[in-house]
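Justification of computing resources. Each target in the renewal requires a structure prediction run like the one illustrated here; the chain below, 272 residues long, is used simply to show the kind of job we budget for.
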Amino acid sequence: MKVAIAGLGLIGGSFQKASVAAGHDTVGLHHGDGGEKLAGAELVMVCMPPDAVVPWISAHADDFSAGATVVDICGVKGAIMREMSKVPRNGWRFVGGHPMAGREVSGYANSLAGLFRGASMILTPFEGESDATLGRLKEYFASVGFARTIVTTPERHDGMIGFTSQLCHIIATAYSRDAKVRESVGFSAGSYADMTRIATQNENDWCALYLSNREGLLGVLDGFIGRMREFRDALEAGDAEAMKRMIVEGTEAKRFEIAAVRGDSPAKGEMA
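Resulting structure tokens:
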């Protein structure tokens, strides 16, 4: 397959390296590139920040080959899909995408051909997209290392990613804003490192993601704040039974998730 990768940061660079390793005819494009580099590409991966995706696609709408599939990789899908529904597509198609892989560092120098090995790729197609198109995409993503492709709606994607990714980054940021962070050397172990690993974020990219998914993120953030308040109130009251109940509830939910990942119990979501 001829693949064009637009945007060569951490994710785009990893797609480029993984595509080359998988034997695909691959070309990399920087933000200002287009035109002849897109000629004949069957798949165009747009690996840019949320506010750059639709403007770049719109500017190159006439450069995509007939029959090509354009996929973005942004962590918010509702806003992207709504804007893309307004862009004329002359013989090419668009499918929203989001690779569930990354690192706490950025840039092409940190990209890896094996970044996607064992990960999930999420697709949010427009209603009525053909099984043939989705089938070709699943084959490509499998070839570059993804273990599964999940097809879902933009709404469900944004709600789940608000919970599994964006909320985690907000928690890490809030945790790391404490003055004790500057005094923590020698007083921390694995749990602290795990909790704060993703606190080193690009403020422009992550602010754009949070604001693009404001409605979905507010819901999960309010839920988390409520659960933290429950634990604080139980601690203040010395209510051991309430604290034990909450610990058990969290443990049982995490054990269910681990079992689902291993295939030992059912999990929601359409997989292929």
